[in-house]
Amino acid sequence: MFSTEGYQALRHGAGIVLRGDRGVLAVTGADRMTWLQGLLTNDVLAVPMGGVQYSVYLTPQGRMITDLRVVNLPDRALLDVPGSLAESLQDRLDRLLFSEDAQVTNVSQQTTIVDIHGPLAPAVITQIESDVARYGAVVADSAFGIPGYSLFVSMADAEVVADRLVAHGGQRTTLETLDILRVEAGRPAFLIDMDEHTIPLEAGIEDRAISYTKGCYVGQEVIVRVMHRGHGRVAKRLVGLRLSKGVLPEPGSVIVGNGREIGQITSAVWSPLLESGIALGYVHRDFAAVGTTVLVRLPQDETLQAEVSDLPFVQSAVSTRNS
Question: Residue 119: what pLDDT?
Fold first, then answer.
């Protein structure tokens, strides 16, 4: 459920969210990072100790199996993945291990993630730095264009950690409220705005998910072919849409341009900051230019006018983004 107070905390204070939607895989063994380097699209070996990196795991055909965050710790790597996929991903990755000294374990029942985002998040985190080793790992990740941190803690400690953050000035809020910041930041989510049919270039995540200087990885040939031979041209693109009225279309609603179907909505929210409805959706590349006017089909043969917007909808409030 959306929380007005929680949204204000995320935008102006420090909002705390228990990430029950996420799963965690642990990769151990001396070869863990070099093994992941050959599987994922980003340069995993460049992740500093204690750092986090956004990446994608592809099929040989360049389609997404999942997106994920890689956390590099002294004794293991943690993979932050969609919760509903954790078990199947663990099985899939385990089958790719041969002679490597690496092991993949689904620790989602033992380890969870507590997020804190907002301009005051750094000050709150500073207050519990001495407890980080006791509770788990904390990584800085300004993924939504505001200062942010993810704390990887034991399931048993999650409520204790959240209470400690509240005691030092944070405020609890909901996944639904955090999702509004995600859309405002123009961040597509796997299983919502991306799926197993998506090529990363279609979703516009290549700048932060793909390294063009690292060695080989699964699906690289397709990505390189599209970028170099096709000059990055794909048939459809994920775009932002500013909606003309407060009506929010359902995911899957058809987008129409010049009288024909050109795509569909994937996410739609009301932005309190922008005081308007905004959405993410795919459109044919001929309609992806900022300022293009399209129509969104609603029930009862109604339509909603929308304008293609630059992403992110809300500009970043931090100078750099970790992922």
Answer: 98
Residue 24's identity, in one-letter code, is V
HEC string of the chain equals: CCCHHHHHHHHHCCEEEECCCEEEEEEECCCHHHHHHCCECCCHHHCCCCCEEEEEEECCCCCEEEEEEEEECCCCEEEEEEHHHHHHHHHHHHCCCCCCCCEEEECCCCEEEEEEECCCHHHHHHHCHHHHHHHEEEEECCCCCCCEEEEEEEHHHHHHHHHHHHHCCCEECCHHHHHHHHHHCCCCCECCCECCCCCHHHHCCHHHHCCCCCCCCCCHHHHHHHHHHCCCCCCEEEEEEEECCCCCCCCCCEEEECCEEEEEEEEEEEECCCCEEEEEEEEEHHHCCCCCEEEEECCCCCEEEEEEECCCCCCCCCCCCCC
Q: Which CATH architecture is the domain 235-323 placed in? A: Beta Barrel (2.40)
Tens digits of per-residue pLDDT, 194-214?
999 999 999 999 999 999 999
Q: Are strands 136-140 and 148-154 parallel, antiparallel or unpaired?
A: antiparallel
Model confidence pLDDT, tens digit, residues 59-78: 999 999 999 999 999 999 99
What angle separates helix 175-184 from helix 4-12, to the nearest 10 degrees? 50
Domain ranges in the chain are 4-184, 235-323
What Rg value do the Cα atoms of the chain yield, rounded? 20
Specify the CATH number for 4-184; select among 3.30.1360.120, 2.40.50.90, 3.90.226.10, 2.120.10.30: 3.30.1360.120
Whether the predicted pLDDT of 323 surpasses 50: no
Structure tokens at 65: 């199996």
